[in-house]
Design brief:
alpha+beta, Alpha-Beta Plaits, 4-stranded antiparallel β-sheet
Length: 135
Amino acid sequence: MDDYEKLLKKAYEEMPKKTRQKERFEMPSLISFIQGKQTIIKNLTEAANKINREPKHIIKYISKDLGTTGTVEGQRGVLTGNFKQQLISSRFNNYIKEYLICKECGKPDTELIKFGGVEYKRCEVCGAKAPVKHV
């Protein structure tokens, strides 16, 4: 084995494990239904856990985007007003793009951090850091 191959092998072994993983990210979907004058997101906490985000952050984003109020009640999210499942799913997809997926490498392995009063999305795979909209 020549020097190049040895160096390449060493570099590969020292890479973070997440960069070597090949499995695809499976985006969770929100299940919602209308009850009276409210829209209930049945699995908000479960979906938030799958993407490593706080349910309050997700409901705040969705409610602000829809121009309504929203709260987390146990495992569910509650929005004031009647909103179709398609609309809730669309807003959740937008949240995923803005607050989860790395714009550089496309991986979902990010975390939200605050630095100097600004919120950033930092990728645990490639190290990219990008500011996100304040919710």
